[in-house]
Design a protein that fits this description.
Number of helices: 28
Shape: elongated
Radius of gyration: 30 Å
Structural class: alpha/beta
Largest sheet: 10 strands, mixed
Strand content: 15-25%
């Protein structure tokens, strides 16, 4: 270890200070003249960039979405890999349970109410382990044998009863299930999760204003499951029953999926995945999806727009019949209102009806796909030039399938066979509660099993030597970056550093710094405008630098809603002192170069919206953060007093999240500077349970952080796996016993796996955990010793 005498440094200030900048700006930087706060400039640039990438995503899909149009057989075969990908991104991956071979109608249906001569029944069918489909069915047509089997999927604001006309919540013209019964069709009306919030809670934790859809979205996202995937599975399980059971003699009848509003999304996805569906009708949903980030969060699908817009889903349905109708449907004006005593934590999101121009634009894209296989006669647009009657799409699909003339609606008489039976809201609420509870239990079953899935994935890594693990780690690192975080191209902009002095003390000086990361969209599509993504922070330089000396750097990262100055202030009356203890200042006074970055997680919705904008292209907030840090590290490495090989990371809270995601993916390479160690403070725990548990008070499911979930992380990499990607580089955890992030048990369980990994590689001296009596805070004891040891820098008394 190189030892420097602190006394000698103080005795020869003229020599020691030769490298220390004294000007208003750092050498070789331009003046920094921004008037907005750094985080405002940062999040604005990121949001603009992410939005531009979304706006150009149709060109990206042209590159990614390839189908063989040389023949219909080749066309159908080329869909297979796209279907696999679509199943993955909506989470429709669990094997459906075999259904009983029903022999009589009474095995499947329970008569309840007759509608003239057509019998309406409650129906239930098996879907997944512990998950059933439920809804209503009209099995006998009014005037003879049914001409088609129709599955009607209502908007999430519609109940099966409303669509069948069993109550008056919808006008007759919008009772679409009833309309199909009147056309002599056998009709099934599955119940879909609604947007109420009556059951989005745990009695021992809190009640929330999460819609049932967002509740299941939160519980399932970390485990690679999505409300849309569950509902597609329910629909396809119903198709299994219709097609394979001995219930119906008319199995040669065409099978139609009819989706209204959000139900149109489920219909398109199901039809894209299953060629047994002969026709799909989408009323009031079809259109461009580039603004999905503004819509309810349960429409957020990881990577969808990198491959599948609505036109691409249409191509997956082709050459079968597809009818799209701009339609008029219920709009979502925001999450459920939070009554007194109910936590207001739901994500913002609204829906709207597409304009005619938007509808036409997506239809033209779909039409191009149909035309390439000469199937344009199977694609129909209703309301392409003006609004049309809700009956128009029914007439269109009947004509396309040659099902006969459209029957005008008549009177709808409900004959109650059971005087004691009354279809009331309480029954509909019971059915909704049952659906929510089944899906909650299914996600919790997946959570319980998820560590076994991760173990199986990671146990094949070669740990026979450090070199062998380093090679294995690169494979895992690439998968984590691509499938979990989302990869952006490396920074394309020159550094263009700007700076201004903001700190000048006896022991150190500090400069606020800004760097460019991207100055235009990373898309290969033609550029119509540009957005600048920047990185920035505060660089602290000790005054006792010697001429020609290169010192280690500690990057000190703030947490949620923080700033670099929070990590620097030594004023104990200021709020940040309680969490950060001025650890940046403490470290620079120990002789380290310190850089305190501004990370973008500040401004509440200002940064959370970036996650929403990035997710549809398979990216996340950390996609940007990683490239900010890459650019920053490479710039730091150019400074004459920085040792490129000794740059460590130390982050608290959300900065601890950064410690688990950025240094593991940024090892030093020949071309890029990287992090040689990482310290995670006040965040390390059993992260998958933290994000997916329905029954732990520590769970993010019951907090306002709606951007926190990362798709299918539970089956790819938890914190112990991410930490293993640091090896052979050092890794440390700092943990206060009273930290409310998670209980000690979760932290100990997860770190034990890390310690085992390092020990097996013979690197036990490179990983530590410090437990201390204290809350969610920097302790600055064991971590400081770790930094001095691993960065080869003398302790202050040496």
């Amino acid at each position: 270890m190189r030892c420097y005498s602190i006394l000698a440094m103080l005795l020869f200030p003229a020599v020691l200070c030769a490298q220390v900048p004294s000007e208003a700006e750092l050498p070789e930087t331009a003046p920094l003249n921004i008037t907005d706060e750094l985080h405002v400039v940062m999040t604005r640039g990121m949001s603009d960039h992410a939005r531009q990438e979304l706006e150009q995503s149709a060109q990206l899909r042209q590159q990614n979405f390839k189908l063989d149009t040389s023949s219909l057989e080749a066309y159908e075969a080329s869909k297979a890999p796209h279907r696999d990908q679509l199943r993955q991104i909506i989470g429709a991956v669990d094997p459906r349970v075999p259904h009983p071979q029903f022999q009589t109608i009474d095995d499947f249906l329970r008569p309840e109410v007759s509608l003239d001569s057509a019998f309406q029944r409650d129906v239930t069918w098996p879907v997944l382990d512990g998950v059933t489909g439920t809804g209503l069915q009209v099995g006998d047509s009014i005037t003879g044998e049914p001409v088609a089997n129709v599955i009607v999927l209502g908007d999430f604001a519609h109940t099966p009863e409303a669509l069948l006309g069993l109550n008056k919540s919808l006008p007759p013209v919008r009772q679409f299930a009833r309309r199909f019964v009147e056309q002599n069709c056998a009709v099934f009306v599955p119940a879909l999760l609604g947007r109420g919030n009556e059951f989005s809670f745990h009695p021992d934790i809190k009640r929330t204003n999460l819609s049932h859809r967002e509740y299941i979205y939160r519980l399932g996202h970390e485990l690679g499951r999505h409300p849309l995937g569950y509902e597609v599975q329910k629909v396809l399980a119903l198709v299994d029953v219709i097609e394979e059971s001995a219930l119906f003699d008319g199995t040669q009848n065409p099978l139609i999926l009819f989706g209204v509003g959000d139900g149109g999304s489920v219909a398109m996805l199901a039809a894209a995945l299953d060629p047994r569906i002969d026709a799909c009708v989408v009323h009031g949903y079809f259109g461009p999806r580039e603004s999905v980030w503004q819509e309810p969060i349960d429409r957020n699908v990881w990577k969808q727009l990198a491959m599948f817009g609505d036109a691409e889903l249409a191509a997956m349905i082709a050459p079968r019949v597809l009818v799209v109708d701009r339609g008029e449907i219920p709009v979502v004006t925001g999450p459920p209102q939070a009554a007194e005593g109910v936590a207001r934590i739901a994500a913002p999101g609204v829906s709207r009806r597409f304009t005619l121009a938007e509808f036409r634009r997506e239809y033209v894209r779909a039409e191009a796909y149909y035309s390439r296989i000469k199937a344009q006669g199977s694609l129909y647009a209703v309301g392409l030039t003006e609004d049309s009657s809700p009956d128009s799409c029914i007439k269109t699909v009947m004509s396309a399938l040659k099902l006969g003339a459209f029957q005008q609606p008549g009177e709808w008489t409900i004959l109650d066979n059971d005087p004691e039976h009354e279809r009331t809201f309480s029954f509909e609420a019971f059915r909704e509660q049952q659906q929510v509870q089944e899906l909650v239990r299914h996600t919790q079953m997946l959570l319980h099993r998820s560590d076994k899935v991760r173990n199986k994935l990671w146990e094949v890594g070669d740990r026979s030597s450090v070199d062998a693990w380093t090679k294995s780690a690169e494979t895992y690192r690439n998968r984590v970056h691509d499938d979990l975080i989302g990869r952006l191209p490396k920074p394309t902009a020159p550094f263009n550093p700007r700076s201004r002095k903001v700190i000048d003390t006896e022991t150190h000086v500090g400069y606020e710094v800004m760097l460019d990361v991207y100055t235009q969209s990373t898309s290969k599509a033609p550029q119509t405008n540009t957005a600048t993504v920047i990185a920035g922070g505060i660089l602290l330089i000790p005054r006792n630098l010697r001429e020609g000396e290169r010192r280690p750097v500690v990057v000190c990262q703030h947490g949620l809603e923080g700033t670099p100055m929070d990590t620097i202030t030594t004023d104990k009356t200021q709020r940040p002192w309680g969490a950060y203890k001025g650890f940046s200042t403490q470290l620079v006074e120990r002789g380290f170069i310190v850089y305190a970055p501004q990370n973008p997680y500040k401004g509440y919705d200002d940064f959370r919206v970036i996650q929403r904008q990035a997710n549809p292209l398979g990216r996340s907030l950390f996609s940007y953060i990683i490239e900010q840090h890459r650019q920053t590290l490479n710039w730091l490495a150019t400074l004459p007093y920085v040792d490129r090989d000794r740059i460590g990371f130390y982050g608290l809270s959300y900065g601890g999240k950064t410690a688990m995601r950025v240094p593991p993916l940024l090892p030093p390479t020949e071309t890029d500077a990287g992090y040689c160690l990482s310290i995670c403070s006040a965040d390390f725990n059993e992260w998958i349970r933290k994000n997916a548990s329905a029954e732990d008070r520590y769970s993010y499911v019951y907090t306002p952080e709606y951007e926190i979930w990362e798709w299918n992380m539970g089956h790819l990499a938890g914190y112990s796996e991410l930490a293993s990607l640091m090896a052979p580089r050092p890794f440390m955890v700092e943990r206060g016993h009273d930290d409310g992030v998670a209980p000690d048990d979760w932290v100990g369980w997860e770190f034990a796996r890390v310690r085992r990994h390092y020990d097996k590689l013979g690197l036990g001296d490179r990983t530590e955990i410090e437990w201390f009596n204290g809350p969610h805070t920097i302790n600055a004891q064991g971590t400081f010793r770790f930094l001095h040891k691993q960065l080869n820098w003398p302790l202050p008394d040496q």
